[in-house]
Amino acid sequence: MSNINVFVEHYDGKLSPSCAELCTVARELGEVNAYVYGSKEQAQVFQETLAALGVQRIFCYEDYENREEDCTCDSLISHQAQFLQRIICVFSIGPVLLSATAEGNEIAGRLAVRMGSGVLTDVTGIDTEGIGEQSIFGDRIITHSAVKGLNPVYTLRPGAVSPRIAAVPGAAELCEVMFIPREHLGGHVVSFTPAPPTDRPELSQVKTVVAAGRGIGKEQHLHDLIEPLADSLGAAVGVTRDVVDLGWYPTQYQIGHTGVSISPDLYLAVGVSGANHHTSGIQSSGTIIAINNDEDAPIFQIADLGVIGDLFTIIPELTKEIQTRL
Description:
Blueprint: E1 3-8, E2 10-11, E3 14-15, H1 18-27, E4 31-39, H2 40-52, E5 55-61, H3 77-91, E6 96-99, H4 102-115, E7 119-126, E8 132-136, E9 141-145, E10 153-156, E11 173-177, E12 208-212, H5 219-233, E13 236-239, H6 241-245, E14 266-270, H7 276-279, E15 287-292, E16 305-308, H8 311-325
Parallel strand pairs: 1-4, 1-6, 4-5, 5-11, 6-10, 7-10, 12-13, 12-14, 14-15, 15-16
Antiparallel strand pairs: 2-3, 7-8, 8-9
């Protein structure tokens, strides 16, 4: 059985939600190895979860005595590509899967060049022959492509597949590799300012999403109407590109071709017209409900339930009704 190598993104001691999606795809292709860019101590935090996802081996850096010199805390993406290349070429020849995030796509490109292998980005699936499926032109065209090399590299579109726990847990054996001292890696980050945290749920971490389009009218309506509705449902707030371009809501909540793809159980679109560049990000949603006063809005073509009416009347009443039933 072929080795399938999954790069695990993690932040502040938590696995990225995309990890489960990557492992779900990888299990169909071969034996799953996970790569945690960090120390053994960090990898142990994820060991139980990765075992449940069917991971057989977890590669990480060996414990290093001088934590002040730990380059895994302040390194560049090029170092992460080097970490992957060193281990894969020695221990685990085979396909490589990463998440199609900004970071994942950059690592994938650098890694493919280093290993002389082909790369496919933003795939929505991979078959047992290694053929990658991609959805392009706003999901109007589906392509199937193959890449060459001993270690073909793929990045999987977040939300493209529904994550599943493995029927049989993996061994999740920790495998330490030699730590690379900072002086051997070249440049390193000397300061870092993270984006300001928000108390809104992340789009990829909830099963219900309430999305707003430009039809919401103005920024204040997002806070007065959409956020209370989302809170009553325990949902995340999503927005269209127009809303982000107008400066009404942060970029990380943008859904669609130039934002994120999601697969919630329930997607409620409010004032969303349904342009292709937005609906490309909700194709794998369970139930889609649309509220719009334009009966010809394209969103109704893909909605399971459509409500034609004034959202400024409907949303407050809907929120009130939900809250009375809690």
